[in-house]
Design goal:
The complex is a heterodimer of chains A (418) and B (410). With 418 residues, chain A is α/β, with parallel strands linked by helices. Chain A is built from eight helices and 31 strands. The longest helix of chain B has 12 residues, at 201-212. The radius of gyration of chain B is 22 Å and the shape is elongated. Classes of the chains: A alpha/beta (418), B alpha/beta (410).
């Protein structure tokens, strides 16, 4: 595996995650209590023995760079191992932002073509999954392929989000469609590509094509040996609020297949710059905690059901949290009821409030494509006054203050800006 | 600020803690559902800005070395920052184990001379407390003392465990130490030593040299009495929580001070750090509470799975309480597993202990039961209160169905 370099494309905006990506890139969105989305790919990389890793960033990279640090949290720091962070840089032209996934790799041609590597493994930092890339690379080598694509069966209704392909008896890809509503196959690209390194260098030099899925792969299918590697296991694209919530809840569903500790997923817990280690979870009095994932540093005096709590969350007496995701150091005041909500870091919800109850058929008025399934989003550091009522499919922007909220009411589908 | 070098006496194993210190020095005994006892002085040092530390250890130092690592968990890595373990070494004479607290420091006199500090702060690695050492250091400097000892009011219970002192005057901060008696049987003087000493370097080295030729080498028993009367010794009055962990019962009671809404130990404000790489704490996922779990007044760290009932208990990372199991007034160290329907009361289980289905361990009211590292209790066994089970006892080694109070299983 030391002959394989990994290029992790972490530049995605992930705009459908709405306010969760207002301050951070999608790969840096917190997941599963203590993790961030990118931890899954980084841990997969480290666990299969890859040692030369580049992370290509672009959009809001600060929290991501903080989080990755020197890579030591994944044991990727050392004399013969390392993570290089590759942001866009100005070159000959003024405007050298990455224009697409393939363009991002092209702009780092010097990294790609240096070193003794024979294959380049292109990954995205947007997915939650556990995978050993070893068999994929072996499969690629055994087939003497130019390109091998990691593929997985998805529900037929979701093919429109993916590139889909049909394999022949030897697993060679014989038919390909990009984001088709009526796809001929439901075997979808996981956004994982093993390229013969020289083939990739040549291809990127010969064309100006900017995207792997829609351009480089279709081109390869015409003249090169492209194989599909069918993967069976847990894999989720968490690109929508709905999918994000659902994948988080998989942590609580026995048999869901999501088990980060068992498959060696690691995170960088010292990145939040606390002067101390998060103490154990404190359960005070007869708190009710059922079907919940709770991270260190939480203090629970109320009730928590079917929810995911990141480190440092405070649930005061008489508060009731159900079907929700609550991120680092958020606070839920006395007697407040929260249902089906995603509460971002350091948000503070006052006492005796009701959040997330209402008619789920009323989609968010401003972002009906993002928030429509009966979930409410409360932004980072937002402060909700006591005795508020916030409906379902609502969006409260980051940093909203109590006095932005004079009526203390937000109807279903409403949005509160700062 | 004065140039301070800290030395932690972390070597001993304490007989009263029984099987919990068979395989480890007391300073790395797990405490508080996450930490080790030595994390408290180490974090206090870090929070006091004292970042040059020597740790004196001789009993099974591997666990301590593993825990302290390179000092990085407490930010004690850098050009002028370090935390190093100082084990005994073989000299010219035959027996070279540390012969007492003062001997341990005396053997490392080169270490002190190398760093040449103004002051040497000597701590013991077995108390649970929060203290800004700069308070006692500043007091020491202000009084131009040769030696300053931190004291707390002598407790009514078990006063014989302490060196006791008489502090001159009514100043609430402290005063001249005029009398000192090492571990008298009764409560004879008002102030009990916390075994925290601030020495001027020269005073310490001279006293150690003088003591070296004698046959007893303890700070409390020998060094302090030898200095009393001919040096400026001050007592500094420390106000605040002080947790003892000398006996099983004491350790358990100090642990219980972490629980409830009036917990006396507030870990968050104490800003304690530990080594998250030890026992892979940092790689553990959030704790999962099952659909039918009930939890009351407890501390639970990461990587646990709680499906049963837990009350007034501490669960270290990786502890598992299966469906129908009940854990009350107990402390489960790392990766303890309590199988379905088992009942654990007033029991301390060491790392990796497994309790079989429907087993009953410990009982309310009686003495604590304690189960050594990696031991495995078979299904449906009944272990009464006050039972001691040694480390590494496999399930098929238990020949009786029932073990009554006070029994010891080896």
């Amino acid at each position: 595996m030391r002959k394989v370099m990994a290029l992790l494309l972490a530049g995605g905006v992930g705009s459908r995650l709405n306010i969760l990506v207002q301050y951070r890139a999608k790969p840096a969105v917190p997941f599963g209590g203590i993790y961030r989305i990118i931890d899954f790919t980084l841990s997969n990389i480290a666990n299969c023995g890859l040692t030369r890793v580049a992370v290509l960033t672009q959009y809001k990279p600060l929290s991501l760079m903080d989080h990755i640090g020197d890579g030591s949290a994944w044991d990727l720091a050392g004399r013969t191992r390392g993570i290089s962070i590759l942001p866009p840089k100005t070159g000959e032209k003024d405007w050298d932002w990455y224009k697409g996934t393939a363009d991002a790799v092209r702009q780092n041609m010097s990294f790609l073509s240096s070193g003794q590597n024979t294959e380049a493994l292109i990954l995205s930092g947007d997915h939650v999954y556990c995978m050993d890339y070893g068999p994929l690379v072996q499969f690629h080598r055994a087939n003497r392929a130019h390109v091998t694509i990691g593929m997985i069966r998805v529900p037929w209704g979701e093919t429109r989000h993916f590139g889909t392909g049909t394999l022949d008896g030897e697993n060679r890809i014989v038919d390909w469609e990009e984001k088709s509503k009526r796809a001929r196959s439901n075997l979808a690209s996981m956004g994982i590509y093993v390229f013969d390194r020289d083939y990739l260098v040549t291809t990127l030099s010969e064309t100006k094509e900017e995207d792997f899925g829609s351009q480089i792969i279709p081109r390869a299918l015409k003249g090169a040996k492209v194989f599909g590697y069918p993967f069976e296991g847990y894999w989720r694209d968490v690109g929508t609020i709905d999918a994000y919530w659902d994948a988080n809840m998989d942590l609580l569903r026995p048999g869901s297949g999501l088990s980060p500790e068992a498959c060696g997923i690691r995170t960088n817990q010292s990145a939040d710059q606390l002067p101390y280690d998060r103490p154990p979870v404190r359960i005070i009095g007869s708190a009710h905690v059922a079907n919940a994932a709770v991270s260190p540093g939480c203090v629970i005096q109320g009730s928590v059901e079917n929810s995911i709590l990141s480190p440092g969350v405070i649930i005061e007496k008489g508060a009731f949290v159900k079907d929700s995701i609550i991120m680092h150091d958020a606070k839920v005041g006395k007697g407040t009821r929260i249902e089906r909500s995603i509460i971002d870091k350091e948000a503070s919800i006052g006492e005796e409030s009701v959040i997330g109850q209402g008619n789920p058929r009323v989609a968010n008025a401003r972002f009906p494509d993002h928030v429509y399934s009966g979930l409410t989003l409360i932004g980072k550091r937002a402060s909700i006054p006591s005795h508020s009522r916030i409906g379902t499919n609502c969006i409260v922007h980051p940093d909203v203050r109590e006095d932005d909220f004079p009526s203390r009411e937000l109807a279903d589908g409403g949005t509160q800006e700062k | 600020m004065k140039n301070v070098l800290a030395m932690i006496l972390a070597g001993g194993r304490v007989d009263e803690l029984d099987v919990l210190t068979f395989l480890r020095p007391k300073s790395v005994l797990p405490f508080g559902a996450l930490y080790r006892i030595i994390d408290f002085p180490m974090s206090n040092l870090m929070n006091s800005g004292i970042e040059r530390v020597g740790i004196l250890s001789q009993y099974r130092p591997f666990y301590l070395i593993n825990h302290i690592a390179n000092g990085q968990p407490w930010d004690m890595v850098g050009r002028n920052r370090f935390a190093v373990i100082l084990p005994p070494f073989k000299g010219r004479e035959a027996s070279d184990w540390y012969k007492g607290t003062a001997d341990a420091v005396y053997r490392n006199i080169d270490f002190i001379k190398m760093y040449n500090p103004d002051l040497v702060l000597i701590l013991s690695g077995d108390h649970i407390y929060k203290m800004d050492y700069l308070d006692v250091i500043n007091y020491h400097v202000e009084k131009k003392a040769d030696l300053t000892i931190a004291f707390t009011p002598t407790p009514r219970e078990g006063p014989g465990r302490f060196g006791q002192g008489l502090i001159e005057g009514q100043d609430p901060t402290g005063g001249r130490l005029v009398e000192y008696i090492e571990k008298p049987k009764k409560r004879v003087l008002d102030w009990a030593s916390l075994t925290i000493y601030v020495f001027n370097q020269k005073v310490l080295l001279d006293a150690l040299e003088e003591n070296a030729g004698k046959d007893s080498h303890e700070f409390g028993k020998d060094i302090i009495p030898s200095l009393l009367g001919n040096s400026r010794i001050f007592g500094y009055k420390h106000i605040g929580y002080w947790g003892y962990t000398r006996t099983l019962e004491e350790y358990w009671r100090t642990s219980m001070d972490l629980l409830g809404d009036r917990a006396q130990i507030d870990l968050k404000s104490w800003q304690i750090r530990t080594n998250l790489a030890h026992r892979e704490i940092r790689d553990r996922q959030p704790t999962i509470f099952g659909p039918a779990s009930t939890v009351t007044d407890s501390l639970v760290h990461s990587g646990c799975l709680v499906k049963g009932k837990v009350s007034r208990s501490l669960l270290f990372p990786g502890a598992v309480v299966e469906e129908g199991a009940v854990v009350e007034d107990s402390i489960l160290f790392f990766d303890t597993k309590v199988a379905k329907g088992a009942r654990v009361t007033r029991t301390i289980t060491d790392i990796g202990v497994a309790i079989g289905r429907s087993a009953i361990v410990g009982g309310p009211g009686g003495k604590l039961s304690v189960i050594g590292m990696e031991s495995s209790l078979p299904e449906e066994i009944e272990v009464h209160d006050g039972v001691t089970i040694y480390p590494n006892v496999p399930a098929d080694h238990f020949t009786q169905r029932e073990y009554s109070s006070g029994e010891v299983v080896k």
